[in-house]
Structures are given as structure tokens and as C-alpha cells.
């Protein structure tokens, strides 16, 4: 007789030779959602792991691994870990059993055939060398950003601080900061160097010395976004709901029915351009210092201080303290505008809801869309115009997105998935259009529900 998969709450004793068998139904009851004391289990390649104690020590962040509690995390595990063999050595102590033989490879909410095809595609992508980076590409990319950074100061030195050189220098400085942001994004995704440690160290240096932020905070936030994009309470990019914006029709309708109103959301498409970047600038400054203090990331704090000392010693002697404050905060606001529009053009117009535990491919396609390729779009967005490919293969170097895009399109066509690709201006317009629709949905529910 085949092994029985009757649900059981009994954990195997230490040193047991017969693996404990579990069903998806039983694993789903160990999501940790009912109580912080509840056990958290997840599945990777049919093995069941108890992460109830480990998640707090998880190097990628405690929340990102907890978001998969009670679920299959196989594809997320592959997407986020460069050296799976090394990581699995640390996971061995967490194994409590495996899926029973009569259980499918994923939960009923997921497309098993799609997952099998995607995993085959992932193997093909690795064989094609698309996970390998070009050091020449990233070297040239970094050098052009450094030149922009130097150019901002040279303009002030040679042309003075009148309005024209002041504004032009400020825009160049903001452009350099945005491009540093795209570069640290590459490092944070372990996609520049083959050695993960090199990526982490350079990420800390670029983020701290050149941008004035902590790399560990970025990893903590951004890994969650990639794990569960557009999933409310799991994707931190949605934290502006409901205090600043009402996002997605489902959440907006729910908010309206509860008669909640922090701002007039029916006008959010009008104030988005100012409120979103205006809120990010002080939020970034405050939350990063708070994160460093609470997590005791003192080395990153030193790097941040060096950044602020560097730009202060560069610009204050040239323009005075008051002019420098105007220069710095205007540049930060411009940087925030650039960042907000580029990052949200791929997500706000897409489905925003609670976590439905979709398979890796369906979840990413439901939450992301692309913008058409061009030399300018690639540079302007840091290749995030290939958002679909980036979310499916987050460790892939960005210069290879265009190569894998046809394969992803074929996979989507085979499984009838919507692969959206727009012009840059259409993507920007869709942000405002969707905000208006969400705001109208909220108002209708607020007034009549």
C-alpha cells in the first residue's frame, strides 16, 4: 500500500529515519497568521521545513520568508538564492518531513503545468548563460554615473551659483543619484558579481557612500516586494494604502465600506504627482536612521555619515548652507519623482489584492507589466521597463532581459497569460487612470455601501 497522507500534528522525533508525511491542507494550517506563536511551515522541493524559530535569523529578512508560511516556496527559493547547495546545508536542520507521495507538486490554487514549464525554462536560461553578468557593461554603467556625479560639482565650480548653473547642476546631481539607485538595485539582487559576498559588500558601499542609505534596509523592504508583489500587507510598496492613497478596486471597495477616509481618494490622481514623492523624501530619511538604530547596523551608519560629510564639504563652501539645503532637497524631490513614476508604472495599473497564493509565474504576471524597449527607456528606467523578466528572474543581470523576453512571451502565450507591454507615456498615464478608478470605487462604496 502507498504511504497514507492522513493529516497529523505530531512532529517526528529527533533522529527519526522514517520521514513524516504531510498534506497541503495540513501545511496550510501552519501559516502563522492566527497567532505569532503558531508554527510556521513551508515547502521547498517537496520537503517540509519548520521555520518557526529560524525566520528571525533569516539573512534575507524575517518577513520575506514568513510570507510563504503555509505555502510552497520552491520557486521563490530558487529566485532569491544564488548558491542553493550552500543554503540547503543550513536548511537541513529545519526539515520535519516531506509531502506525501499522493500530493501534487504544488497547492490547488497554483497552475502545476505552468510551473513545470517555467522550471524547465529556468534550466534553459541558466544553460544559455543568461544568469551570468558582463563586467564590461556594469563597469561602463558605473563610470558614467561617477562622471555625472563629478559634473554636478564642476558646473558649480566653473559657472557659479546663479539660477541656470544651480538648477542644471541640481538636475545632474539628481540624475546621478537615480542612476546610483539603479546600480545598487543590481547589486542588491546579486546580479553584478558571481560571488554573492562581493555583491553584498559593494551594495553596502554604493548605497551608503554614494547614496546615503543602508543596504540592509533596502534588502529588507525590496525582497518582500519581489516575493509577494502587489499583495496587501506583504508587499511594503503598498504601505501608502490607505494613509495616502486607496489602491486597487478590491482594497478601495473594502475601505469605502468601512467608511474610512484619510484623504479624499477620489482626487488622488490629481495629488499623486506631488504627494507621493513629497512623502518619500522625509520618509526615507527618517525610516533609514530608525532602521539602523533599531537593527544596530553601525558600519552602514558610518558609510551614511561619510556620504553626508562628503556632499556637505563639496557644496557648502561653493554655495553656502542655505543654498545647499535648497539644492539638496530639490535634488531629492526630483529623484523621488523619477523613482516613483518608474517603479509604479509597472505595478499600480496591475492587480492589487490580498495574497491569493498563486504560483510564481501567475503572481508576477498579475502584478507587473513591461514598457517598450529603447535605448532611452533602458537607461531612464534602469532596465525596469523589463519588469516582467526582472520579477521572474530577479538575479538575472539586466543586460540580458531582452534576450529572455521572447522565451517568456512564448511561455505566456502557451498558458494564456496576459503579457502586457506599453509605451512609456502610456504606462505613466495608466498610473493616474488606475488611481482615478480606485478613487471612484472608494467613493461609491463610501457613499452608498
From TrEMBL:
InterPro entries: Cyt_B5-like_heme/steroid-bd, Cyt_B5-like_heme/steroid_sf, FA_desaturase_dom, Fatty_acid_desaturase. One of its GO terms (biological process) is fatty acid biosynthetic process. Keywords: Fatty acid biosynthesis, Fatty acid metabolism, Lipid biosynthesis, Lipid metabolism, Membrane, Transmembrane, Transmembrane helix. Pathway: Lipid metabolism; polyunsaturated fatty acid biosynthesis. The chain crosses the membrane at residues 135-157, 163-180, 271-291, 298-318, 324-342. GO terms for cellular component: membrane. The keyword Transmembrane applies. Coiled coil: none annotated. Residues 19-100 form the Cytochrome b5 heme-binding domain. The keyword Membrane applies. This is Acyl-CoA (8-3)-desaturase-like. It comes from Eublepharis macularius (Leopard gecko).
Amino acid at each position: 500500500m502507498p504511504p497514507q497522507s492522513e493529516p497529523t500534528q505530531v512532529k517526528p522525533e529527533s533522529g527519526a529515519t522514517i520521514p513524516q508525511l504531510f498534506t497541503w491542507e495540513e501545511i496550510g494550517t501552519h501559516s502563522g497568521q492566527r497567532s505569532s506563536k503558531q508554527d510556521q511551515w513551508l515547502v521547498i522541493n517537496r520537503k517540509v521545513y519548520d521555520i518557526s524559530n529560524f525566520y528571525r535569523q533569516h539573512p534575507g529578512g524575517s518577513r520575506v520568508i514568513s510570507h510563504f508560511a503555509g505555502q510552497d516556496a520552491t520557486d521563490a527559493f530558487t529566485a532569491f538564492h544564488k548558491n542553493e547547495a550552500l543554503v540547503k546545508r543550513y536548511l537541513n536542520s529545519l526539515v520535519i518531513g516531506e509531502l506525501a507521495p499522493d500530493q501534487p507538486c504544488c497547492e490547488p490554487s497554483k497552475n502545476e503545468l505552468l510551473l513545470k514549464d517555467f522550471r524547465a525554462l529556468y534550466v534553459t536560461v541558466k544553460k544559455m548563460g543568461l544568469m551570468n553578468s558582463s563586467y564590461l557593461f556594469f563597469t561602463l554603467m558605473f563610470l558614467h554615473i561617477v562622471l555625472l556625479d563629478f559634473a554636478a560639482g564642476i558646473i558649480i565650480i566653473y559657472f557659479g551659483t546663479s539660477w541656470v548653473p544651480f538648477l542644471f547642476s541640481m538636475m545632474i546631481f539628481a540624475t546621478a543619484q537615480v542612476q546610483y539607485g539603479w546600480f545598487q538595485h543590481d547589486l542588491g539582487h546579486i546580479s553584478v558579481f558571481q560571488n554573492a559576498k562581493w555583491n553584498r559588500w559593494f551594495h553596502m558601499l554604493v548605497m551608503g557612500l554614494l547614496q546615503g542609505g543602508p543596504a540592509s534596509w533596502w534588502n529588507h523592504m525590496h525582497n518582500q516586494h519581489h516575493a509577494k508583489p502587489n499583495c496587501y500587507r506583504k508587499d511594503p510598496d503598498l504601505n501608502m494604502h490607505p494613509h495616502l492613497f486607496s489602491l486597487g478596486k478590491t482594497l478601495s471597495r473594502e475601505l469605502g465600506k468601512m467608511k474610512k477616509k484619510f484623504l479624499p481618494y477620489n482626487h488622488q490622481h490629481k495629488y499623486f504627482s506631488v504627494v507621493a514623492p513629497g512623502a518619500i523624501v522625509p520618509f526615507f530619511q527618517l525610516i533609514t536612521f530608525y532602521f539602523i538604530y533599531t537593527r544596530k547596523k553601525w558600519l552602514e551608519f558610518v558609510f551614511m555619515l561619510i556620504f553626508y560629510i562628503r556632499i556637505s564639504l563639496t557644496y557648502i563652501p561653493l554655495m553656502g548652507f542655505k543654498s545647499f539645503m535648497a539644492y539638496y532637497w530639490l535634488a531629492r524631490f526630483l529623484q523621488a519623482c523619477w523613482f516613483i513614476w518608474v517603479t509604479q508604472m509597472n505595478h499600480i495599473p496591475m492587480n492589487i489584492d490580498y495574497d491569493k497564493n498563486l504560483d510564481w509565474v501567475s503572481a508576477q504576471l498579475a502584478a507587473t507589466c513591461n514598457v517598450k524597449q529603447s535605448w532611452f527607456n533602458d537607461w531612464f528606467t534602469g532596465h525596469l521597463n523589463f519588469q516582467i523578466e526582472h520579477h521572474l528572474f530577479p538575479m538575472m543581470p539586466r543586460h540580458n532581459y531582452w534576450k529572455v523576453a521572447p522565451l517568456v512571451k512564448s511561455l505566456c502565450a502557451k498558458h494564456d497569460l496576459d503579457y502586457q507591454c506599453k509605451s512609456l507615456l502610456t504606462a505613466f498615464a495608466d498610473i493616474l487612470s488606475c488611481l482615478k478608478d480606485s478613487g471612484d470605487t472608494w467613493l461609491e462604496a463610501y457613499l452608498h455601501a
